[in-house]
Amino acid sequence: MPLFVDARVPVRFGSVSDTDAGSALLIEGDAPAPDGVAVVRFTAEAAAGPHPAGCPCCATRSPAAVALAALFLARARGKAVFFRTVVAVCPTPEGQAAVRAAVESDPLVPAWFRMIS
């Protein structure tokens, strides 16, 4: 029996066709999405820098981090179809890097999500 169970929602890269009833989609851009799944979209653009004083609480979050936070909050509030995994559909390397950065180093997102691919 494992001593530690990671309850964070797993995020993996894939395509829209990789979704099932327990998946949500994080889509870079405007690719079509199937009905019946939770969907959030983002664009791979650089976030603005931190507050001039440099405090981390005022740092602007990336679009991928904002999208993942919105997805998690919708799930927690019962406003999205319940999901157990997230499929990140990122056609560009910049989009993939943005998702990895959000899941690994955003101040909040790593508490809710973990990368599995």
Task: Name its key features.
117 residues; five-stranded parallel sheet; globular
Question: Would you write up a description of this structure?
Answer:
There is one protein chain. With 117 residues, the chain is α/β, with parallel strands linked by helices. It has one domain. The protein contains three helices and five strands. It has a five-stranded parallel sheet. Helix 1 (63-76) packs across helix 2 (93-105). The longest helix has 14 residues, at 63-76. The radius of gyration is 14 Å and the shape is globular.
Q: Count up the domains.
A: 1
Specify the overall morphology.
globular
Q: What is the total tally of β strands?
A: 5
Strand residue content: 15-25%
* N- to C-terminal distance: 24 Å
Q: What proportion of the residues is helical, as a percent range?
A: 25-40%
Low-pLDDT sequence parts: none
Secondary structure category: alpha/beta
Number of helices: 3
Q: What order do the SSEs take from the amino end to the carboxyl end, as H and E? A: EEEHEHHE
The largest sheet is: 5 strands, parallel
Mean pLDDT: 88
Order of strands in the sheet with the most strands? 3-2-4-1-5
Rounded Rg = 14 Å
Give a short summary of the structure.
The protein is α/β, with parallel strands linked by helices and 117 residues long. 26% of the residues lie in helices and 20% in strands.
